[in-house]
Automatic annotation (TrEMBL):
Residues 1-59 are annotated as: Disordered. Pathway: Siderophore biosynthesis. This is IucA/IucC family protein. Residues 396-528 form the Aerobactin siderophore biosynthesis IucA/IucC-like C-terminal domain. Belongs to the IucA/IucC family.
Amino acid sequence: MERVDLKHEAPADDTPAHDEAGPTGPTAARDPASVSPGDPARCADRESGSVPPGDPALHADRHAVAPLLNCLLREVAEPHGHDQGRDVYRLPGTGRLLRVRGGRRPADPEVRDAHGWRPLGHRALVALVAEELRRHTGLANDELPAEMTTGRDTVAALLAARSRSSPPADLYLRSEQALVTGHPHHPAPKFRGNGPPARWLPYAPEAHARFPLVLLGLREDTVAEDGDTGALDTLGSAPPGYRLLPAHPWQLDLTAPALAAAFADGRLIRLGTTPAPVWPTAAIRTVYDPDADLFVKFSLDVRITNDIRRLWRHDLLRLRRTDTAARRALAAAPGPAAWLSDRGWRTARFAFEELAVLVREGLRGPLLPGATPLLAAALVEGFPGNPLAAARDPHAWWEAYLTAVVPPALAAYADHGVVLEAHLQNTLVAVDADGTPVQALFRDAEGVKLLPDVGRDAGWERLVYCLVVNHLTEVAAALAEHHPGLDPWPAARRALAGTGLPEAAALLTAPTLPGKTNLLLRWTGADGAAARYRPLPNPLAAH
């Protein structure tokens, strides 16, 4: 797919070089040497972890502290005034006072004791959070604190790996591999299981990984599939009596004991690997083959944020229904918005969820000519070449962003009863040669909900959380941080009011928005699908 030049210079010596062997295209990063130290583009590069400054351990702490603090402050802590320019909170379970440097990424936490304010590193913060939650909920949990600590160590391993690797030259792939901090409101967004880094680093998008897929032959009488899976057969060839089944090498490692009998009796055979490497996207278990313009999604028996990331049977069996509904809704939506279709899946009957493979439509068909898709989450976290940071007219950029994203998501809900999971990691925003948003592409039929199944009130709450709280508020905050003085909310109000949707009109006067409580959800052991929300102040109403 042809990419477009966003009019950035080639990187200077203090920016990682492009991967010569990766996908090529004229999407080079802006030259950090050409901007002042306070320039938003330089800030974005630093935030992304591309150039770890100072002590690597301290930098890893900062990446891990911010989302944990965001959770604690959103879900548990009570505002308690200010002290020396910092925000102070009271923790109701323990009664302790916490002081932080506020902002989109809160940092430098301190706890008050008999001797004054004492700094908290990540491990001490984890201990404080665990004590608070035990008293606040009356429940004990040894698993989550371990995940928080391991997640911080994962960040350290990722930063070390990024210092030895080069980001892809292709700006889209660079955006998919930019998320070193990850989910801004999760206590352990980078937890990768308890294995050593050597087990997962070869497959980590944040480490700029790329790798070949393992090709398996699956005996024909054991195949289960649905939809259009023909793209899988283009990845290689299988002998007579077998069908081709690509596998993620990490998942094969994780499930090796369970699959040993199938390899022994010939239900599964190994056929080598794909000739070209694939690139893991931000979702980790979804990979992209640029040559074939194909996304492939796998089960991965690892907890990532709230859930073990398997392709669950019940989701696969409803996939064609949700995918068809989302595809039709976006085709009828205003503007050029598009849906990346989950066209079909294939697996083994004897390892239905373990070996499931999902085929997702590539970018070339839906993408506007000359546009470059970028992961919305990466626009928030920052990466070299980020057009959000470099926008010459941030007001116009934000208006264009809202026009691309908001009307199609609300039209899908209002006109077709389709609730898109339009959060930051499921939305691509395509930009033109000047970096201006021109199109939204939505993905992931697994996360789509249909109003006949969930009800209108629950569907609207989920859409508001995904689209407004998880998505628009984060982009708005990042844009305002990079462009001081910008007030993003009047434009957001106009975008929502212009849809004519009664629920959207009511949202503009509602005092609160629903904020998902990931910390409490994980502490209490609730299923990730059982989302619980806490009322948050509504910036739309405040304006």
